[in-house]
Amino acid sequence: MSDTLNNRSEYAALAKMIQPYVNAGKSGRSEEMKPAFHDGATIHGYLGPDLIAGPIQVLYDWVDQNEPATELQSWLASIDLNATVATVPLELYNWSGHRFTDLFTPLKTEKENHPQGFLFASPKLPNILPLMIYRVFFLS
Hints:
It is a single chain. This protein is of the alpha+beta class. The chain has a single domain (3-138), classed as Nuclear Transport Factor 2, Chain: A, CATH 3.10.450. It is built from 2 helices and 10 strands, in the order αββαββββββββ. It has helices at 3-27, 57-65; strands at 42-47, 50-55, 73-76, 80-81, 86-95, 98-104, 106-108, 113-115, 117-121, 134-138. The strands form 2 sheets. Strands 1, 2, 3, 4, 5, 6, 9 and 10 form an 8-stranded mixed β-sheet that branches. The longest helix is centred in the first third of the chain and has 25 residues, at 3-27. The protein is globular and about 40 Å long. Mean pLDDT is 75; it is low at 116-134 and 136-140.
């Protein structure tokens, strides 16, 4: 099989990996997004002025505490695929009234792809930490 066909297959797998995350935003049920993350994943960043950091359960709690984002719109901005890591920017509009750009960076292992961390920040803050998933929060 050519590299192009392999890449198409891997692109499709990455898109499939992220879909439960989007579905959970729409349903307001974090249980749906758990398959998209490694059990040891973490989250770090700012939602407005508030620091949100810790185990990925912090994200799950936020999803469960908010109403379902039934009007959530999302699309993959691009996929940059390398040998064992990819970067996948995901644009999200109207998630509980917020706009996000999430940058997933899953690590490819022999088992499957899973993001290992989750980072997001307000674009008004100057410091960005280089972790596995980067989320930019756009202030209204």
